[in-house]
């Protein structure tokens, strides 16, 4: 990747002097951005451009070339790339569109290009991209003609879409944020998002990374890279629904992915997901400040209304407005005409108009131990205040650094003044109260991730009987069939997950026979795919103590079900030993196309069916991941003993999740694992699987 | 209100030539904004200002005065207002702070002011506000010194906070949106938000109204006004949580309100609620376009990436990307080099670079019957395109109007060019894809509200026995006690809400005795406040067919409960005739401090306890309100017969809601009504209350 960003001798292929020529724009950009290397132009018509000759082929250039930028029709690219190879060019940026995303013909060109690149050892970006920028050396080769109005800074951008990449550049420029590097990766035929990310993580000039993705390539690799990055990585992942899928396919040939898994993977690896440009802009700005290390925010506001907005937003973002200590308030009272300002947090500056005093108050606030960050809500009362506001901003910049705490500076002023501040200060200027506090929330969340990353990197390994499972799975595979219920339960047992076996009875007599074998009391449950709420229709009959009870219960069940689900196909009833207490949950796992094995947990019944409340994590999961899965389940208060009820065995739930994770990692051939239901008992009493299904990849 | 916005002769009281004087700013603003009336300055020190003498009292002014703007210390205001009264001034704007929001002394000043205003017939805005603007006549009296950089337009602003009001002005100015009128209403001692709203609804210059509120005054009045407004009303209601409450109280003396009721009230009356400045800005912009009348959006994009983002956002906003008809595509193919553009919706313009053709495509798209609106996603490839882009924009402006469909124009270009477009075109310019589509969603929702407002204004009145209820409630009130369960059920019966009475048994023997009276089979249910999930712990025993069954069930129940809730206080068990089938729901109502009677509906059990899933509406509710309550319940698919199960009697649920609404309206003394549970049976089988509680206001 270094060669892509730092060439010394560049050939731009596809240049002419025509007004609409895009290669011309590339040459123009290199000149305007002051590229510190040598540039040669190549184009079949020859001629001159920017006081340079246009060579009719790369071969003609009387110099060695490090990198070629190609922007010629798709069908010419294979041949031109071969010429580059023969010339000894090792890096290329292929901006041309019309490849895989246009159909079969384009795919064929791509295959040719890959072969040529491999043969000549060429690494390349694209095709179907708008190019690369490195503001460190002025290397700027996008085909749109850019203006040099972007500050040099520490944000680097990787975008699968050129258009979205350009929007991000405009956003940086508009917010006065500084760019370091930019890559439009397009079809990612050779260099992909993970390659660029790996480079940027170690790149000295880059401190914040933004990635726009329409598809996940190697999700697991992305996670691994993100986990070892101390730099914040923001990702805007689109193509999340059915409508987006079709156009994404024809745009960058991107397949959709399971968005819930993407969410989990990002969170597990500390990737900050953004959902719109507003969130992106505010997050980038907040990341220019020191991190919000705790939950205690101080709000200092010139307007009471802004203070109210801020307080609401703090509550929604989970921040505390820690009360200021008495000593601090007395200090303020002494020095700062306290009769007119309201001494609470939020601190409403009332009719105190001295901006010098504002600076002193911000500094005193930052000195407080129970303040992790400050949002300063400024309102300009007239243009006459612009100069003193700028002085205040300078002081705040210094203070935020000195105390290593974020001071989010919000200003309500004329557009001209806001723009002046953004363009002339290396400090983020916020103009929206609620959005700023949301961004501070992100800063805190990222900091916490960073603090706990070591803990969450520890993976427990239970002692399990891998060999027995290996043997069982191999047998099943040989017989080209699915695992039976009993085999699935055996696999689980080998991994320390206990179960209660039941027997499927097709009629009342069978049910009575099995009940006798199992021993009374028993439970019987209807097995029928179409019946979603078994208990609602008498489909679960518990605590049956003798054969009469089983018989009556069986008949009752069928009558009730016939009344409610006249058309349901009933496969039989499951007879199980009566297991008292506990509640049913759903545990599971599956292989995700992009991220590999994932673990699932849900409270049963309507939680899953109606609320789609399932927690997902990419395996392997750590202890804290598993705890987090339980805690984040809506309804988890039920598990912990809501309203005086006894708590369930959460420890065991956590252990079972980790064991499932271990099983999925050990046996990637397990395509799907469902434990539905798992009976979870009261504290210290464990869990037992009542039903399980394992589906193998090749079965 | 007319006199507040349209004075001819104005006195500004509190003016001096000191640099920090705020009255001076007001005079400056009136001059800068070209006020078309006469202005007099008043201040105790006398002197000159803007070539005018400063009179030492209003009495000295040798002219009649329509309106006084007062910005002097709080303790001087009562006296000065009295002077105004004596002078015959009929309107005032009191900008001074330090009243009720500062404590008791301030409250006393407010009382004095109110008395004086009443005596002299003065209507006034404030106190504790930043003033009023009317761009129609240049009347501009906020005390911050403003620049005349706001276009005159059709948006009017009402803000309870001066600071937030100023932010809104900056937002308009920044987005190139036009202001009509502005009022900072502050403490609303005399003129309140509803007064201003009523005026603006009929005001010719105003087409869109934005209100910032920290408290609800007369919520019901606000609803009534909004319901009769054809102009969109956007409200940012803050002070929604505990953190905001304290500061709001000391800021504008605002009490918090039940946010769920506020949400319902706004939706019922077509008020568009906004939650942050981003949403406000985008909504204001979209409302400048024709409404989005249907769900079919066409996306036309220069960048494939933007098209993917747009498609995702369409899915989230519930829009369809209706496929373009073949005839349309053939037309495009014929004229517009179709080989390079992808003929789907979203339409990716690919490498078609002719902006004139873009205009033709937009027009052809607008002509399609199955297209209700267009989002055009433009990306500027170089500054050279600025002129043609402006031409395209002019054409789009005309087209959007001609076809009466919104064309949201998104542009990704340099900040300078975007600003130029915003300031020089009377057409909204969008710069964020996802946010723009969300705003189009709001436009569609507002249009639908508007379409259905008549239907939702029809209130059914069932024949009920009001007199019987009147008599019963009066009796209870006389006896200064609460209604008994049986009385509550009687009230419901008089309003056509049927019930199943049960009997409370304190032990197994009583349960058996009552069961015999009621007739077998019976159900018994534990009555204990602390037990939230009765069914989980055997607390509900159904279908008991004889006295042995009741006895065993009673013991079983107590044993299981003791195991799970060792400390629960058990009040007894309710013995009821066995009612087969159906499911339990919660119906209810209460008096809201700001909005009066509200009706509640929830699915029982965990839906309410864990998910807090309750639908609330302000009474009276129409048929469609009631239907909407059912449909918007999470889990409503259960009611409608999910997965082949029989549907419950939704018609009856709807009827019961309307009957409860009628009861609450007829008897405002009902502070709280709870029907928990109401048993809802299968289709056409109705509902029956199993338990009910009515609490009266004065009991």
What does the secondary structure layout of this molecule look like, with pairings?
Two copies of one chain form a homodimer.
Chain A lengths: L1 H4 L3 E5 L8 H11 L5 E5 L5 E2 L2 E4 L11 E4 L6 H11 L3 E4 L9 H17 L2 E3 L5 E4 L4 E2 L11 E8 L2 H14 L3 E6 L8 H10 L5 E6 L5 H9 L5 E5 L4 H11 L6 H11 L2 E2 L3 H10 L10 E5 L2 H14 L8 H10 L11 E2 L6 H13 L5 E7 L6 H17 L4 E6 L2 H10 L4 E2 L2 H20 L13 H13 L6 H10 L8 E3 L2 H11 L3 E6 L12 E5 L2 H18 L7 E6 L5 E10 L3 E8 L2 H4 L4 E5 L4 H10 L3 H4 L10 H17 L3 E11 L6 E3 L2 E5 L3
Parallel strand pairs in A: 1-2, 1-5, 2-4, 5-6, 6-7, 10-11, 10-12, 12-13, 13-14, 15-16, 15-17, 17-18, 18-19
Antiparallel strand pairs in A: 3-4, 8-9, 8-11, 20-23, 21-22, 21-23, 24-25, 24-27, 25-26, 27-28, 27-29
Helix pairs in contact in A: 3-4, 6-7, 7-9, 10-16, 11-16, 13-14, 17-18, 19-20, 22-24
What report would you give on this structure?
The structure is a homodimer of 699-residue chains. In chain A, 40% of the residues lie in helices and 21% in strands. Chain A contains 24 helices and 29 strands. In chain A, the strands form 5 sheets. Chain A has a 7-stranded mixed β-sheet, with helices on both faces. Chain A has a 7-stranded mixed β-sheet with strand order 9-8-11-10-12-13-14, with helices on both faces. In chain A, strands 24, 25, 26, 27, 28 and 29 form a 6-stranded antiparallel β-sheet that branches. Chain A is flat and about 100 Å long. Chain A has 699 residues and is α/β, with parallel strands linked by helices. In chain A, strand 5 (67-70), helix 3 (77-87) and strand 6 (91-94) form a beta-alpha-beta unit. In chain A, helix 11 (304-317) runs parallel beside helix 16 (433-452). The interface between A and B is large, with 111 and 111 residues.
